[in-house]
Amino acid sequence: MLHNKIHRYQNLFSGNILDIGARSKPYRNLFTEVAQYVGTNTCRHHQINHLRPDEDTTDVWIGDGTALPFQNATFDGVVFKSSL
Question: How far apart are CA 37 and CA 12, in angstroms?
Fold first, then answer.
């Protein structure tokens, strides 16, 4: 169902997209018109899933999502699903 909703609105996304709590970035391929898709995860995600470095698709590690290491206006859209 979420894939259908993203597909419906994907044309509204362009430029740079930030995915907070991206896990393995399962929605990346749905955003075909974006310049950059950046996935963030917490260290806890890495530990829980016992990921090896070569299995990890994380672009940027974050503590808890309350303080992100990016300049203002770096991203044009945000994907935030199941991260609470």
Answer: 14
Query: Contact, 31 vs 14, CB < 8 A?
Result: no
Q: What is the DSSP string of 35-58?
A: EEEEEEEEHHHHHHTT--GGG---
Cβ(79)–Cβ(57) under 8 Å? Answer: no
Domain ranges across the chain: 2-80
* pTM for the full predicted model: 0.79
Q: Is the pLDDT of residue 53 over 70?
A: no
Residue 62: closest CA among 5, 78, 54: 78
